[in-house]
Amino acid sequence: MDGQQVLVIRSARRTRTVTADQVQGTLRLRVPVRLSRREIEDHARAFQKKLSRRAARRPRSDEELLDRSRALSSRYLDGIPQPEAVSWSTQQHQRWGSTTSTTGTIRLSARLREMPAWVQDSVLIHELAHLIEPGHGPRFKALIAKYPRTGEADAFLAGVSWADHNAEPPASQQE
What we know:
CATH architecture of the largest domain: 2-Layer Sandwich
CATH superfamily of the largest domain: Metalloproteases ("zincins"), catalytic domain
Distance between the termini: 60 Å
Pfam families: YgjP-like (PF01863)
Radius of gyration: 22 Å
Protein name: YgjP-like metallopeptidase domain-containing protein
Organism: Nesterenkonia sandarakina
């Protein structure tokens, strides 16, 4: 179905519930015997959508970050910056990302892991632009402006920073 294998397991014991999991790329549906083909297809599509949303929320690995940064470079920066490595950093608490242009290495704050992918992409574009232009001048701003959600991501990150800075400490620390 829709390019994905679906294994349907009918059960006489099941009366109402439908469950699903994915094993080696195959969606396994456990369904009551009485379900029609149409109902099974509807459940399969719903579970496919749910599983893809769940996968999208899973934090990217360092390898996936490198692949994503290369794709973003090709799409928005003419493929000019080619990072050697991109990784998550648990050492960055004040910055969202950093670049070492001499080695082509990009590090993203691990705090970004739980943020939307478009925010992560904006930070990646920012760091990729530093592989072309070290400062934050007009040329740099023109590069990052090629990513359509730069302004939105900057506002999102400014809100997170504000909330972090203005959060009240837990009651146990206020005394």
